[in-house]
Amino acid sequence: MRPKTLLFFVLTTQSLLFGDDRFQLFVPDAQSQQLQSYSIRTTFSGLAVETNEPLALPFSASRIAVNPKSDSLIVSGMSNGKTQAATVSASERDGMDVIGSNTLSHPVGYTSIDRTGGYFMSSHYQSGWVAVYQIQNDGIVGKATTTFKTPNPEAHCIRTSPDNRFAYVPCVKNNNALFQFSFDEKTGNLEPIEPFNAKPPAMFGPRHVAYHPSLPIVYFSNEQQLGVSVYEIGSSGQLSDRQHATTLPRRSPFEQGKRDLHASDLVLSPDGERLFVAVRDFAGEEDSVFTFRILSDGKLSLENRTKVGDIPWKLDISPLGNYLIVCESGVRNIAFFKIHPNGSLDRVPNTDIPSGARDMAVLGAER
Predict the structure, then answer these.
(1) Neighbouring C-beta atoms of residue 362, cutoff 10 Å
(2) Measured between alpha carbons, how far is 347 from 359 in angstroms, rounded to an integer?
(3) What is the mean pLDDT of residues 254-274?
(4) Torsional class of 120: left (φ above 0), alpha (ψ -120 to 50), beta (otherwise)
(5) Rounded Cα–Cα distance for residues 168 and 211 (Å)
(6) Which residue from 313, 365, 358, 364 is spatially nearest to 64, judged by alpha carbons?
């Protein structure tokens, strides 16, 4: 019995010291037509990354979304010129399994699931199509409840607000726009809010969205401005700008088609105390993640800058907020960074995952 007692003591002490920040990381691999899975746990020396058996998918998936109400994921991509979505059960205990798949009516780019877990949402960059699909009782994506083509293409993201009443679709580059919708969680309908376009400053290029966990505040990473905009959400969903925070200056004014500095993803810590935003450098070596402290009114104060691998495309964070995960797409790698109390980041050695993916998803481990 001593070894078991000792093991229990070690695990319990470890959990108290480091926080039981165990989670699963899921990465779609379009080339192999598989869903890769990794089990991550805290150790005395940092993190342990265990590679699980991959799951064969019925098509090449490049996008992934987590259902907030179940241990399931929806992966999506193209197959024979058609848009496909598959629902995957993702229990740590039972492993992964494809529940079922379906053909969708519109192309997908960025994908998410609403706060009830009942609707699958997508925005498509090239066409500007935004679509909402009902998730059936069996978990499979069903018929579209809303399809809407934004006036401007390059629609980059869609995600509902914490109260599930609103959704915002930012458009980057010269299409520079921020479209506002109300969302009905009972019907899955999106309706434009007046004014429809919140009209971000010229050439800011809002790209991705993140919400404050307790304040009526929403944040947008700005692809061309290389920073983050802070907006207050009004009672009817209209956005009012409160701050435009910057990271580093552009080398030169934005030119359509020229690859240079471009901001990408952003993520908040679970406690709402910090925001992280990535900046990609296609023409140099300034690829970085910037850390902002979130003030009591939701505004931002720049704290730290951390150089990362080439072209940081996607960010995610561990359930307890102890680790930042970065898709370094230019070097086909996923890296883990320890988040320190002052907001600085340190790369965790010996944990890199070889992957060219530009999307990933985190699920908290079962307790």
Answers:
(1) 16
(2) 20
(3) 93
(4) beta
(5) 11
(6) 358
Residue 34 has pLDDT above 90, yes or no: yes
Q: How far apart are CA 195 and CA 239, in angstroms?
A: 10
With 0.90 as the threshold, say if the pTM is over it: yes
C-alpha of 130 from chain center: 17
**Beta strand 159-160 pairing with 141-149:** unpaired
Instruction: Judge residue 53's burial from the number of C-beta atoms within 10 Å of its C-beta, 0-12 exposed, 13-18 middle, 19 or more buried.
Output: exposed
What is the structure's pLDDT at 45?
77
The closest alpha carbon to 40, from 19, 56, 13, 17, belongs to 19
| pLDDT of 251 | 86
Burial string for 152-172 (b: 16+ CB within 10 Å, else e) reads bbbbbbbbbbeeebbbbbbbb
Sign of CA dihedral 245, 251, 257, 261: negative
Predicted pLDDT of residue 8: 32
Per-residue pLDDT tens over the stretch 167-184: 999 999 999 999 999 999
> Percent of the chain, pLDDT > 70?
94
Tokens 């960059």 locate to 125
Q: What is the pLDDT of residue 20?
A: 73
pLDDT band at 46 (very low <50, low <70, confident <90, very high): confident
**331-336: which pairs have CB atoms within 8 A and are 24 or more residues apart?**
332/356, 333/309, 334/25, 334/27, 334/360, 335/308, 335/309, 336/40, 336/47, 336/49
CATH architecture of 24-364: 7 Propeller (2.130)
Give the helix ranges, DSSP H, for the chain.
2-18
